Predict the 3D structure of the following.
Amino acid sequence: MSTKGKVSFLKVGILAAVMIVGLVFIAVAQEGPIKLGAVNPLGDITGAQSTKAMELAVAEINAAGGILGRQLELIVIDSEFDAAKGAAAIDRLATVDEVDIFIGGMSSGVHLGEIPTLKKYEKVTVWAGAASSLVEEAMEGEDWYFHLHPWDYLQGGSYVQGWADISAQYPLIDIKTAFWAYEEGAFGSGSYAGSLVAHDAWDNVGESFKSAVFGGGDYRSVLRHAQEIDPDIFIWVGYGADALPIMEQAREIGFAPSLFVGSPPGWPADFGESPLAEGVVAYGMWAPSMRNISPVSDHFWNAYIEMHEEEPATYFAPLGYTNVYVVAEAITRAGTLEKEALIAALEETSYDSPLGETLTFTPSNLIEHQGFQGQKILQWQDGSQQILWPFEFATALPHFPYTGR
Amino acid sequence: MTLLRKLQQRRYVTALVSMIVLVLLAVWKPYALIEGIQRGGVYSLIALPMALILGIVGIINLAHGEFMMLGAYFAYWLGVYTGLDPLVAIIPALAVFALIGAATYLLTIRRALKAPELNQLLLTFGLAMMAAQFANLMWTSRPLKPHLSYVYSSISLGSLRFGTYAFVYTGAALVLLAGLLLFLRRTRLGKAALAVGQNPRGAKLVGIDVNRTYMLIFSISIALVGAIGALFLTRHSVFPAVGSPFTMKSFCLIAMAGIGNLPGVVWGGFALGIAEAFVLSFRGYGGWADVVFFAVLVAVIMTRSYRRRVV
Amino acid sequence: MRNSRYIGYALGAALAAVFPLVSGAYTQQVAVTTLIYMTLALSWDMLLRSGQLSFGTAGFFGLGSYAAVLLFLNVGVNPITSILLGGVFAGVVALLVGLAVLRLRGMYFAITTLALASIFTVVVRNIPSLTGGPEGMMLPTCVFNGNTAQVYWLVLAVAILAIGMSEVFQHTRIRLALTSIRNDERVAKSSGIHVFWYLVFVFAVTSVLQGIAGGAYAHVYGFVSPEGSFNANFLLLPLAMALLGGVHSTWGPVVGALVLGVLGEYLKLQIPYGHLLVYGGIIVLVTLFLPQGFVGALRARVRQFQSGRGS
């Protein structure tokens, strides 16, 4: 063979070798996706929108190149609001889908059923839902557990702070007596119990009612008792189905406290259109108007609508989005999925979330890694929810007293 | 009949005692009486169409509440797209749900009538599940309610201030009762239906088309409950699961009154509504209102059974 | 012939027992839920064989749950014993209630059991000092510390107990008595059967089973709550399973529970949104086309085949 032939043979050989080595590198780097496993109640709007928001976050992250060179994969199983099904879902995600991290959630009751199963695997868990302190008791001492949603007593504490700040800023608003109407199930009773402890500066009277969700829907006896007390603030804890009927029946019997506060997990679709909504104070974690003051929130709002052709209607949507980003950023910081490193990285979380706050993890009463510390005080004005407090997120001034239009 | 003779008849004693109780309530807890009559109206109204099916076709329609839910959604979306008030939507609802009832009967119920009774229970349970899931898929679980300013109209009588709109349910229940009784006792179709309800084989022998009667009654019942859904929407939010508690309550009322006893359903509805409102009027005891409902129910059923020794 | 049956039992039990060795935690978890529902379906069917339709399964299930948890937390009884005692408690309540209520028949008995179950729920919810109120109570540890295989064996033991009792009811004189009562009570009475005491006995025994299932569930998942432990699912799903599989038999509820339990989970994974619509649709279709349930249809097919061969 001529010298030229030998050299070209060598060139081809080296090129081939480089290509093979390069291919092996690429194959090794793409080990398969990082898997996030979520258990959400898909049959309810909170779980459905939380899932959609998670899908949005995952799509964004993957479009930007993934994490550590790997794609992110989201696997969601319906909890069907059933504790046993939630537990089975955790088992499946852990053993069949072999997820790396657990996320998601909404109902405290379902989560209580999932906890024994979570404790079996002790995978890093960043849980978005559950507010009951029973859950906190169960998770005491588990360093792999991170919790986003504020506990019921944290919510109560934040509202105490909120009203104190508002009263200080607007001395017309002075609260001495409070009447609490709470739905008689676990949600209402738990919220009321948690709030009662925090609001010891007020004169509190409470009464339970049967929510429209369970066949109730007639609140007049409770409203009349409130009327007799004539409180400075009236707070009802129930579900979205109770929102408009309570306002209608209050108007019917002529009950108009100067502060009318509603605390459902979500509001009916057209609540703002009713003139009775004007001035109703709402307890929540987020309002669409957040997008006017937070760029992250604005981006989330637009991206969600573009991807899913519907508007986010519940705070579980930005919460689900936050859930995925917190995990993704922590994995990037840690540079690995190894448990101890991941826990350390999560502890360093400082994420500017579409809910408004910058999310960090600090200890609560019994656990080490609590995310959101409180909620916000909102108000229906001119058909949409505005944020009154914390003042750093305020999008409007309070309208006081409540009159309805 | 002398007064003493009248008092010996149980009917009159019950009526007298009821009068006395009502007067006492009016004086002691007037709001309980007023709102009890209004609540009772809702219960009676919703229960009457179910009683019709149970009495004549003989099946427990577990999808009853779900049809009402669909009727409420119908009225809601009709209002959104055409601006029609739910009260006006009652009329198209009657027509639409009569068709839906007929279709449901022809496609499913008719086949199940030959099967053991429990199959019909399971069938309507399956239909209820499908209806609720359908609503969830179409419109999500988020509650919906139109704003109507007349639903919170009220009047003041002396020191009392109470709502007037909710009497619509009471009125509708009484009107529906009168209408159904007239239909069943005075019209040929209604009398045929009664005959079928009492003895299907006998009715067939006499030449009544049993199958057509069943279909008619079923369609009427669904048409009514769909229209009731529109009325329901005026004061209640609608969401996929809104119907099922009312199915159970209706079933309870019918059991309390006895199958085939339509007036009993209405009086029972009022009695239970008033009893509930009475318990709720005591602050702190509201959680026990349910127990009163069911305790009264059990008590009435037991008393009737001991009296007759048959049921 | 009897020996072949016993061999069949032993084989079935052995197969079921080794199941955890060939399956993962997830399938075992699904199996646990299915077995609990199977126990409820069997206990419901056992009472149905006497002609009595009960809607109280969720009530006794919840009573058993709470009793087991309270005994475990306040008296320090060990979990297994507390589960059995929970069942006994439910049985005692059923006995007392049954003495009053078992003179009722048909729909009236059904509604009364439903009313009682609701009363239990409300009472439990309203004595928070004892029961933890609406939020319920949590156990510090779950039975076997959540080891899925051991939990499975526990629940399997409960299900085998239910199957065993059901077979006893099917293969002894009890069956004749129950069938006779179901067909015609007067004839049964004249044959010397104490109808009332028989019904009380069956009611109490089946309630014990339901209470044991409830206690097991509470210890497996580690908490009780009024909304969770008295949930309507513990009434409606076992009913559907028994009806779908074929009532008045042991293997009907067993097959029904296996099919619906596994199917429900499978559908959920395949159709995340809307699986319940398909589930309801399947129930409707089976009701229409297999009115005797799977086992009943199978038996009819076998009988057809045998009679075809014979002639």
